[in-house]
Design brief:
The complex is a heterodimer. By secondary structure, chain A is of the alpha/beta class. Chain A is built from nine helices and ten strands. Chain B has one domain (7-193): Methylesterase CheB, C-terminal domain (Rossmann fold, 3-Layer(aba) Sandwich). Chain B has a seven-stranded parallel beta sheet with strand order 3-4-2-1-7-8-9, with helices on both faces. A two-stranded antiparallel ribbon of chain B has the order 5-6. The chains are: A alpha/beta, B alpha/beta. The structure holds S-adenosylmethionine (SAM). S-adenosylmethionine is lined by residues 72-76, 80, 108-110, 114, 137-139, 142, 199-201, 215-217, 220, 246 of chain A.
């Protein structure tokens, strides 16, 4: 057998153990970035081979927690891709306003910056009280951080810039209080948000949504899992519901392409046909 | 070494836009090896430079989206704010993982993934730049049998990047910017190396 195949076998073995023991399934993650994250973890923790790591993970729950955090990259920001929020405000909000009540699902919300951005946008449109926002991720540590709504002050300058470009109608500073090195988002923004642990690779639908945002999460999945998750989204959207992806993710060439209308290809906003 | 290269990866930082422009305007008409490219660029930039290079080139130069199919005769550019990786021989993937060498996209990330997938069937080219991203990537390509070309640091707009690569790897060729396109044309055209 070639070395390459053996190497793959060892990695699969590691992923099997992680799945069987801890219930997290990484088999269908995108190969290249998965490999990079696993080998990065091995370097940091001084493992020479996949099997050495697998062997330790068999019994060491503490190490698994650290491993899991490395596998779930939570890089995010408030009003990431400001033009997306602008397009959402202009193209989607007027349509949503025709509903008495809407449900929004942020799948893979990481530490919550995206969720608070949406809450601010809905608030500025006078619409927050008519919305329920579900914010889910499979990384519990990130979720706990999201629940606090407390963020490092060093990023705020960037967030303000984003907010302004996103067409914010007030000032971002209206929405947080500052202390020392941190800012805390105001509590009223949280009133309509429910945070929950949800694994897109294994868990089921979340009920009927008007809007699903899943941004910069699908890039971590292979084509197969992408299609599986996209079908979950399609089936979780109400008639004419909206799906929003990350700025470099597209429905083109996926198995659900024909089930959606393109609202804004540049900013990846799609609408379920029926 | 035989001529059947299946991919070219190119990376640059400061001075890169001009360098890419020069190289891409000189590719021959039917250049066929797919090219993957990382230029360090501020996050949130638009893709004006992709269009700029595209207009100068006979190749179809485009910004990559996630899981985009690899086609011959095309060049795929890493979008600002995302790492570009070779997923397998048919597709590319993106990641929003943390910066590597303070960079996202990072040249090391692309080169490493390309070496892993293509082994001795890839050509790695490292150009001008004022940091050391790409040095480990070039080494990886070299170690797995790929062909490596580094721009001459003496005449590069910024010398640190090519210099860092040369410090840790005995690359196949050190070339002037002007020579790189014609060399790649040769390698594409099926002329044997060595
Ligand atoms: C790069 S962040 C994206 C955050 C935010 N949506 C944004 O675009 O800024 C990716 C998130 O996806 C989550 N994720 C990865 N795999 C997941 C899965 N199988 N189920 C749920 N969340 C997942 C990670 O934990 C991480 O928080």
């Amino acid at each position: 057998m070639e070395d390459e195949k053996k190497d793959n076998l060892a990695l699969q073995c590691l992923l099997d153990i992680v799945e069987k023991i801890y219930g997290y399934d990484f088999h269908e993650y995108a190969n290249a970035s998965l490999r990079r994250r696993v080998t990065g973890f091995m370097l940091d923790h001084k493992f020479d081979t996949y099997l050495q790591l697998a062997d330790r993970l068999l019994y060491d729950e503490g190490l698994f927690e650290v491993f899991l955090r490395q596998m779930s990259i939570t890089v995010t920001e408030m009003f990431r891709d400001p033009e997306f929020y602008k397009s959402f405000r202009e193209n989607i909000i007027p349509k949503l306003k025709t509903y008495p009540y809407i449900k929004v699902w942020h799948a893979g919300c990481a530490t919550g910056e995206e969720v608070f951005s949406m809450a601010i946008l809905l608030h500025e449109e006078g619409f927050l009280d008519r919305a329920t926002i579900y914010a889910t991720d499979f990384n519990q540590v990130a979720l706990e951080c999201a629940k606090t709504g407390i963020y490092d002050a060093s990023n705020v300058k960037q967030y303000i810039e984003n907010y302004n470009k996103a067409g914010g109608t007030s000032g971002l500073s209206e929405y947080y209080t500052s202390s020392y090195n941190a800012v805390k988002l105001r509590d009223f923004l949280k009133r309509r948000i429910t945070f929950a642990n949800h694994n897109l690779a294994v868990d089921r639908s979340f009920g009927e949504m008007n809007v699903i945002l899943c941004r910069n999460v699908l890039i971590y999945f292979n084509k197969n899992l992408q299609n599986q998750v996209l079908k979950l989204f399609r089936d979780s959207l109400c008639h004419k519901g909206y799906l929003c992806l990350g700025s470099k993710e597209t429905l083109r060439f996926t198995e659900v392409e024909n089930d959606f209308e393109v609202v804004d290809e540049k900013y990846r906003i799609y609408q379920r046909k029926s | 070494m035989s001529n059947c290269f299946e991919a070219i990866v190119i990376g640059a930082s400061s001075g890169g836009l001009e360098a890419f422009y020069k190289i891409f305007s000189k590719f021959h008409e039917d250049f066929s090896i797919p090219i993957f490219l990382v230029q360090h660029i501020k996050e949130g930039s638009d893709n004006y430079y992709v269009q700029h290079i595209n207009r100068a080139s006979s190749l179809d130069v485009l910004e990559a989206v996630d899981k985009i199919k690899i086609n011959r005769g095309k060049a795929y550019v890493a979008p600002p704010g995302y790492h570009l990786l070779v997923e397998d021989k048919t597709s590319l993937s993106l990641s929003a993982d943390p910066r590597v060498n303070f960079s996202r996209p990072s040249i090391d990330v692309l080169f490493d993934s390309a070496a892993h997938v293509y082994k001795d069937k890839v050509i790695g080219v490292l150009l001008t730049g004022a940091n050391s991203d790409g040095a480990l990537g070039i080494k990886k390509i070299h170690d797995l049998g790929g062909y490596t070309i580094v721009q001459n640091p003496e005449t590069a707009l910024s010398s640190e990047m090519p210099r860092s690569a040369l410090a840790i790897t005995k690359v196949d060729e050190v070339l002037e910017l002007d020579q790189i396109a014609s060399r790649l044309n040769q390698l594409d055209g099926g002329n044997n190396v060595k």
